[in-house]
Design the sequence.
């Protein structure tokens, strides 16, 4: 089966939105998805994109049971480490269950790695849920190291009301 | 001493920024991991494609530090993207020199960052903290931060350059 890995275009955003939701369902957090293809179009394309996205596409004769030809995606952006410099953060990597085991995930990641190399990035970072064994195994096999286990890093956030409160706090 | 200003970092500040980055890394017990140079900071923060934004805290000359410094704190941040909620402000580094703590500089920096987040339509401000760093974790939790590693099970992973290059050759 011929698989094409290519940069996403604005017209792909409806498919990306569909796959974002599929991944959120897998991660058991579908109610946390608040944005749609409209925000994805606005934020990913134009002079100042907030993310980069690659899409995995199959020819029409191999379309999915539901008639989809866009069967996987990788969403990433550039970050900065004050110790090492330019880094790529891979936010989402997803392949539809029907298309797994064909090297699509591997090809998507390799393309992200290629983009990272071209931009002189020294590292790729990502996060995985602690119960997600298939993904943990996939990344560990590629040489990933668990910095939460190794160095004790935890993700924190100020979200929604907490963020508003902080912005309004008197000095 | 209560007099300080917060301002956007300028190219001339890179030497101070690097000094403070190294001080923070020393506190995190990882000073030998800082390989970034002033030249990198200049190119990556003030070139055609800034990879980060920086705020610095400056005191008047009469309140300079024991070593003669007037830049006494900084915060480095950039914008990232969450496919579920959109734009985020990511706080990479946040540090105030020991002799200038307790004057509200840290609180003021955090307030300014949260104002920036709200103004630029970010739904959330994210960052990581080492789990043993109790003073910092308490500082953030007092202000309404939540720990996503504990609450949802997210673990941070890295894939270094060597393994990234291996992936590009497998493509």
Sequence:
């Amino acid at each position: 089966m011929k698989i094409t890995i290519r940069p996403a275009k604005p017209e792909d955003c409806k498919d990306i939105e569909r796959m974002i939701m599929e991944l959120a369902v897998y991660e058991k957090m579908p109610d946390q998805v608040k944005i749609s293809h409209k925000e994805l179009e606005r934020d990913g394309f134009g002079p100042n994109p907030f993310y980069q996205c690659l899409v995995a596409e199959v020819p029409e004769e191999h379309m999915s049971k539901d008639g989809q030809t866009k069967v996987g995606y990788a969403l990433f952006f550039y970050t900065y480490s004050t110790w090492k410099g330019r880094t790529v953060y891979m936010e989402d990597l997803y392949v539809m269950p029907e298309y797994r085991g064909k090297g699509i995930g591997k090809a998507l990641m390799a393309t992200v790695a290629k983009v990272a190399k071209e931009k002189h990035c020294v590292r790729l970072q990502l996060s995985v849920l602690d119960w997600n064994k298939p993904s943990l195994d996939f990344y560990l096999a590629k040489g990933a190291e668990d910095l939460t286990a190794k160095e004790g890093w935890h993700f924190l956030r100020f979200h929604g009301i907490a963020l508003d409160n902080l912005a309004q706090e008197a000095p | 001493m209560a007099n300080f200003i917060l301002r956007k970092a300028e190219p001339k500040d890179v030497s101070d920024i690097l000094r403070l980055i190294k001080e923070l890394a020393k506190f995190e017990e990882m000073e030998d991991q800082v390989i970034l140079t002033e030249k990198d900071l200049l190119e990556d923060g003030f070139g055609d494609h800034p990879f980060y934004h920086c705020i610095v805290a400056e005191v008047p000359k009469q309140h300079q530090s024991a070593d003669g410094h007037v830049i006494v704190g900084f915060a480095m941040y950039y914008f990232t993207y969450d496919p579920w909620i959109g734009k985020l402000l990511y706080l990479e580094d946040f540090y105030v020199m020991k002799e200038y703590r307790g004057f509200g500089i840290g609180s003021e920096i955090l307030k300014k960052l949260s104002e920036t987040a709200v103004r630029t339509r970010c739904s959330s401000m994210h960052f990581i903290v080492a789990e043993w760093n109790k003073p910092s974790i308490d500082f953030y939790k007092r202000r309404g931060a939540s720990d996503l590693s504990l609450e949802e099970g997210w673990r941070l992973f890295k894939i270094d350059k060597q393994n990234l290059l291996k992936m590009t050759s497998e493509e």
Remarks:
- Chain B has a mean pLDDT of 91.
